[in-house]
Design goal:
83% helix
Length: 173
């Protein structure tokens, strides 16, 4: 019996020390893992944020390029008829959109939806104003009609999207 007591006197403290060491090491390892995870997240955000901002810049440029004022300046020529201008405007909007399609990877789904709505709104406006024209209308008449329609709107579809994109990019900073 005395031998058992002596063994317990030695093994119980050793067992307690072993358990405490195991708990301390487990806690240290968990803290180190969490610290490394946080460091990795911070490092990723440092490299991703500039790329995201660049995507938002490109989308703002896209939206500015498909605003009707900008489109008309770039696409319209003095001798165009309304049908040619209509076709040129739609082609320009679609090619600009296709050129910037990959930017959606870096944007929130809501932001990309706003961009798509701006593109659709611009195309609908172009089509609806074209449908109101007489068959032999000139490009100049079509241009004036489009600009009048834009002025009558509260906010042009591209302007709504630009405001949204600027606000979202501002939240990233």
């Amino acid at each position: 019996m005395e031998a058992v007591t002596e063994i317990l006197k030695i093994t119980l403290p050793a067992l307690l020390v072993t358990i405490m060491a195991w708990l301390v090491l487990k806690s240290m390892i968990k803290n180190e893992r969490d610290r490394r995870r946080q460091e990795l997240i911070l490092q990723n955000s440092r490299s991703i944020v500039p790329i995201k901002l660049q995507a938002y810049e490109r989308i703002i440029l896209f939206l500015e390029r498909i605003s009707l004022e900008s489109l008309l300046v770039r696409v319209s020529t003095p001798n165009m008829n309304a049908a040619q201008l209509h076709s040129g405007l739609l082609t320009s909007v679609r090619s600009e959109f296709e050129h910037n399609l990959s930017q959606q990877i870096y944007m929130s789904p809501q932001a990309w939806e706003v961009v798509r709505n701006a593109r659709s709104g611009t195309i609908k406006l172009i089509n609806s104003e074209y449908d109101k024209l007489p068959e032999n209308a000139t490009g100049m008449i079509f241009s004036k009609q489009l600009l009048t329609a834009v002025m009558d709107m509260d906010k042009e579809p591209t302007r709504v999207a630009i405001d949204f994109i600027k606000a979202e990019a501002g939240r990233m900073l």
